[in-house]
Design a protein that fits this description.
By secondary structure, the chain is α/β, with parallel strands linked by helices. The chain is built from ten helices and 16 strands.
Length: about 475
């Protein structure tokens, strides 16, 4: 088999699919930094410094929900080692703070707020620890870290992702040789449906904090770009093997010397302001609603997930401007994507169908297990949407049936103009889980999406015209 044919056979696990379906979620960055006005604590700030006056996990959850996000990931322990729950395994936690007389549990409050508001809950935990004396000792620290993981993964309900921040300061004297395999095994045992992100086998980081994605973002990538459950990575036989930061890691040209592939989807993490944690004098650093919309299009709309960083202040509250921007963003997302012309006002047909089971109408069915598949002999298959009457649209959203892999390499969007001729509006490359195509506002009665290049049979789960 050719490399691209092997790549087409890489498929996601159910946990990866559930993670991808979460699409857009928040990272709540909270801990000691807002009280010291520094982004990274040194681990020596007294626990008594942590004293939020008016913390509201309910406000956080409502703000996240208002923006159209589906989950919250909480920084349960950052680099300074301070834990946002009353852990039994370190003195550097809420139990030694003055907040709620040491009886508070922010992880519990956020987890409960997520449940009340229909949001998923995830945990961020940094293996690097600038407070814990066993850090750098090998097995003793691994045992300490796994004890923290065990508490987080057994005491707070279902966890949709565990975000392992593998960053470690270059100036640290004692660098820990982490037992990643043991960490992964424990997570699998306690939360089998949780995706392990950043430093893990389920999800890769895009490589920057600006939401810059590739023009063609592949989820099926050479195996040496990822890690296995035992913490090791595959070795590439190619002298010109790609690195996770390269501009092209999935095209036929980029993978021509590869022979092993994995499903390793990308996540973008971007703060809503210029910093992850709250900064007291940052009054104008917030991204506008329009900037966030563009960010959404080039991440969620380009086969990635987006984790947007929110930063409560030392009171435990989000800035009023942040709340307004988030609400406006959610309003626009609902306005732009809440009505699918193809589903509500259109008739969907195709150039061919593999069988009745794979009918074109499956593309506008809300069932995530049915999809359109063309006949084998159809070399340039297309979907056609005919509206009841000419209408205005400026977005086309495509979703592949990724349960069977990522296959599409190129497609075209065309519309029937007022002279009755087909006019090409856009050429695209990969689709993957989701591709949002933004076009100039166009009025038409017919839209056609033609798939011109693919690695294996085209399978379209959903199509939307907005």
């Amino acid at each position: 088999m050719k490399p691209y044919e092997i790549a087409a056979n890489a498929k996601p696990t159910e946990r990866q699919i559930k993670w991808q379906q979460t699409e857009f979620y928040a990272l709540i960055s909270y801990g000691m930094p807002p009280f010291t006005n520094k982004q990274y604590g040194d681990g020596f700030t007294p626990a008594t410094m942590f004293w939020p006056e008016d913390l509201s996990a309910e406000e956080w959850a409502l703000a996240v929900k208002s923006a159209g996000m589906k989950a919250i990931v909480l920084t349960c322990k950052h680099y300074d080692g301070f834990c946002l729950w009353p852990t039994k395994y370190t003195d550097y936690s809420l139990k030694n703070s003055n907040w709620k007389d040491g009886n508070g549990d922010i992880v519990r409050e956020v987890s409960d707020a997520c449940k009340r508001n229909g949001l998923k809950f995830g945990v961020y935990i940094a293996p690097w620890d600038r407070h814990e004396p066993t850090y750098g000792s090998g097995k003793p620290y691994d045992e300490f870290f796994m004890n923290l993981l065990r508490e987080l993964l057994t005491d707070y309900g279902d966890i949709f992702c565990v975000w392992l921040d593998a960053v470690c300061g270059a100036d640290e004297r004692n660098v820990q040789d982490h037992d990643w395999a043991a960490y992964y095994k424990l997570i699998r045992e306690l939360q089998r449906d949780a995706a392990i992100c950043f430093r893990g086998p389920d999800v890769r980081w895009i490589g920057n904090e600006r939401g810059v994605t590739r023009e063609s973002e592949w989820s099926s990538v050479p195996a040496h770009l990822g890690v296995y459950e035992d913490g090791t990575s595959a070795k590439s036989k190619s002298r010109k093997s790609k690195g996770v930061m390269d501009l092209d890691i999935g095209s036929r040209k980029a993978i021509k010397n590869e022979d092993e592939f994995i499903w390793y989807p990308a996540e973008c993490s971007v703060p809503i302001r210029d910093h992850w944690f709250h900064v007291a004098d940052d009054k104008y650093g917030i991204k506008t609603k329009d900037k966030l919309l563009k960010l959404y299009y080039r991440t969620v709309g380009a086969n990635c997930n987006l984790m947007l960083g929110l930063a409560p202040d030392k009171r435990g509250r989000l800035d009023e401007t942040d709340l307004q921007v988030l609400s406006a963003l959610g309003h626009d997302l609902k306005l732009y994507f809440g009505y699918n012309l193809a589903q509500r006002d259109g008739t969907v047909t195709a150039s061919s169908e593999f069988s009745k089971q794979f009918a074109a109408t499956n593309c506008v069915d809300d069932n995530e297990y049915v999809y359109w598949k063309p006949a084998d002999k159809d070399k340039k298959p297309y979907i056609e949407i005919e509206l009841k009457e000419a209408d205005l649209f400026d977005k086309v959203v495509l979703m592949e049936n990724i349960r069977n892999g990522q296959h599409i390499e190129a497609f075209e969007v065309s519309y029937l103009n007022e002279k009755g001729k087909w006019k090409k509006a856009l050429e695209g490359t990969v689709v993957g889980y989701k591709r949002i195509c933004c076009l100039k506002p166009t009025k038409t009665k017919k839209i056609r999406i033609t798939f011109t290049e693919y690695r294996a049979p085209v399978e379209i789960l959903n199509v939307a015209v907005n």
